[in-house]
Amino acid sequence: MRSHILGTGSYVPKQVLTNADLEQLVDTSDSWIVERTGIRERRKVAPGEACSDLGIRAAQQALAAANIQSADVDLIIVATCTGDSPLPSTASLIQYRLGASRAAAFDISAACCGFVYALSAADAFIRSGQYRHVLVIASEVMSSVTDWTDRNTCVLFGDGAGAVVVGRTEEEDRGLLSVHLHADGRLSDLICVPGGGSSFPASESMLAERLQYVKMRGNETFKIAVKTMEEAVREALAPHNLTMDDIDYLVPHQANIRILKAVGQRLGLSMEKVVLNLDRFGNTSAASIPLALDEAVRAGQIRPGSLIVLAAFGAGLTWASGVVRW
Ligand code: ACO
Questions:
Q1: 112 an active-site residue?
Q2: Measuring CA to CA, which residue among 106, 79, 103 is closest to residue 91?
Q3: Which residues, given as ranges, of the chain have pLDDT below 50?
Q4: pLDDT of residue 143
Q5: Is the CB of 287 within 6 Å of ligand 1?
């Protein structure tokens, strides 16, 4: 028995923030942002719209696509670094509002790798026989940790959510073939939100130092991202004796077009096989892979039989990959 993705869904907030809008906030330009990142616009929540609000919409779509009722969900995992609040978990809030009353619920924090980490946990619960249907949601309100005075970071991120329903399959050669997860905590200061947790709890001085916002050493992150993403894709293929030619689509974490072009070049993988939506949504952290996956499924690009590789890197530092025969 294997786990398999039975349905996908996604949701982005209505408000579009263009590069021209950011030109009004910081000393930047549309041409700099497009050239250095590939991002043209991103979405931003309305006041009062939280992580769970986005996650629920994506989850409802995924459940409908999978033809699964919320009462039949055994477990909800939410991957996020921007949950509604530190306590309780965003997964619990979504469990209640979805009416998934039988489901256990917890959150996973692995930044941009959160979706692949959560998928791996869902896979283990399914293959062990403990659960039949696991709802994996990745939802981020990156605008809540974005410093709108810092041009190094504010142009990069966006808000959004993606979700998948993971169930069982007995079909040979179908489903989630494998997942690989990695972390190197020595690099945890490359990307971080220092404040708001137990090391720098909310206080006037914490706010004055702007520790509640994302800090990133972009240039160093860039180089490691290219290296780890390449390794992650090769590691994903190796156990199955698959080559780059076997890949129908790479669905990568959507951080920067230059990172993805460099990865494609190193792998010898045509960019036509790389699912991209960062131009419209920016870096939505954990949500970026399921958001791109859902778009590709709904567009008919990913079809039954397609071989899909997922690859991510992010704060932690974490990196991860997975192979799915759709
Ligand atoms: N507009 C104009 N100029 C800018 C901007 C901006 N928005 N941002 C930075 N610059 C300037 C810098 O100040 C610097 O100027 P200087 O040379 O006078 O000092 C110059 O541009 C070059 O800066 P670099 O940081 O070297 O630019 P780089 O080409 O590396 O691009 C970027 C920066 C886009 C952040 C890139 O490094 C990147 O994408 N890194 C990876 C980030 C990432 O993927 N993070 C993912 C993890 S997120 C997570 O886990 C939640």
A1: yes
A2: 106
A3: none
A4: 98
A5: no
Does 256 participate in catalysis according to the annotation?
no
Kindly report, residue by residue over 13-61, the tens digit of the pLDDT: 999 999 999 999 999 999 999 999 999 999 999 999 999 999 999 999 9
Question: Which of 23, 26, 152 should be mutated for ligand 1, with most atoms under 8 A from CB?
Answer: 152
pLDDT recorded at residue 173: 85
Task: Write down the pLDDT at residue 163.
Answer: 98
Nearest C-alpha to atom 19 of ligand 1 is from which residue? 152
Is 253 one of the catalytic residues?
A: yes
- 78: nearest Cα among 126, 133, 139, 120: 139
Would the pTM count as exceeding 0.85? Answer: yes
Tell me if 257 CB under 6 Å of ligand 1.
no
The topology under which CATH files domain 176-325 is Peroxisomal Thiolase; Chain A, domain 1 (3.40.47)
Residues 6+ apart with CB under 8 A from 77: 91, 105, 106, 107, 108, 118, 121, 122, 134, 135, 136, 137
Q: Does any ligand 1 atom lie closer than 6 A to the CB of residue 283?
A: yes
C-alpha 29 to ligand 1 mean position (Å)? 13
What is the predicted pLDDT for the residue at 289? 98
Superfamily of domain 2-170: Thiolase/Chalcone synthase (3.40.47.10)
- Residue limits of CATH 3.40.47.10 in the chain: 2-170, 176-325
pLDDT of residue 259: 97
Read out DSSP for 99-129?
T-TT-EEEEE--GGGHHHHHHHHHHHHHHTT
The active-site residue, picked from 51, 81, 112, 154, is 112
Which of 81, 180, 253, 256 is an active site residue? 253
Mutate-to-test residue for ligand 1 from 36, 139, 213, highest number of ligand atoms within 8 A of CB? 36
